[in-house]
């Protein structure tokens, strides 16, 4: 980027060519395997994230090594990574740890965070996000949202297993979040997904519903929860796809950063 700007300053290239070169510089292509958005953090404040699901071991190694070698800064998130796959990756990434990179794996969220602490310090000055689950089975999706939100620079308050089956558990936890000044609340719920409507009817901040694939019979695979959240009469709800904790966190981050 510096070289391009220097050439522009010395009038060696036109402003149009400089713009094209800067756009090209934002994409890192790795052996036809992946095109990484290396400018994502500068553009959005959020690190690059790679979905492990559907990628084989060798492809993930190429992506991780390429990113850390060529970019050599900022965090890289590997999402939906099973524990067995992580253990295998860790053995092949010892050279990164020797170079000062940390490999932090969250087993519940199934996310690997690859960071170089000497170059990237997380900031928590954007604001607070609340995350609530209906039941214990919803926690993995909530943890995915929590990791992503924290990596994006938010402080996260959580309260799990406070669903409508024992709704008395919800009110003190929700009151605490409101008192702490959360700017948005993510609600992860399966079954009929009613918790999202209840929360939205009680607070004055945006609520993001995450239907989870927890349920059986007609509500199996999260469809009943999805339909229930989409059909809610409580205003102020946005709904993401089934089990999409990642998307909910990114949307929540967008809300709090724009309201800072």
Automatic annotation (TrEMBL):
Signal peptide: none annotated. SMART domains: AIRC. Residues 127-259 form the PurE domain. The lineage of its organism: Archaea, Methanobacteriati, Methanobacteriota, Methanomada group, Methanobacteria. Keywords: Isomerase. PANTHER family: PHOSPHORIBOSYLAMINOIMIDAZOLE CARBOXYLASE-RELATED, SLL1489 PROTEIN. It holds the Pfam family AIRC. This is N5-carboxyaminoimidazole ribonucleotide mutase. InterPro entries: P2CMN_synthase_LarB, PurE_dom. Its EC number is 5.4.99.18. It comes from the Archaea. It comes from Methanobrevibacter cuticularis. GO terms for biological process: 'de novo' IMP biosynthetic process. Coiled coil: none annotated. GO terms for molecular function: 5-(carboxyamino)imidazole ribonucleotide mutase activity; hydrolase activity.
